[in-house]
Design goal:
single chain; mainly alpha; 2 helices
């Protein structure tokens, strides 16, 4: 109830490999955009990856309701 658009505390993210994959894809895509000369998208994806890393590793608290 009222968890917002991105529910990064969802039990689906419990396995470590899923959290690593989601964060790695966002950061990797940001690096790819930076290397291809698209700094706007690079900033977008690097920020998304940083946010995912923060939420999925530092403040991660999975719910147990599912």
């Amino acid at each position: 109830m009222g968890r917002g658009v991105f529910d990064l505390d969802h039990p689906w993210f419990r396995p470590l490999w899923r959290r690593l994959l989601v964060t790695g894809i966002a950061l990797g895509w940001g690096v790819l955009e930076l290397a291809s000369g698209s700094p706007g998208f690079a900033v977008l994806f690097l920020a998304l990856g940083a946010y995912a890393g923060w939420r999925l590793f530092v403040t991660f608290n999975p719910r147990g309701d599912e």
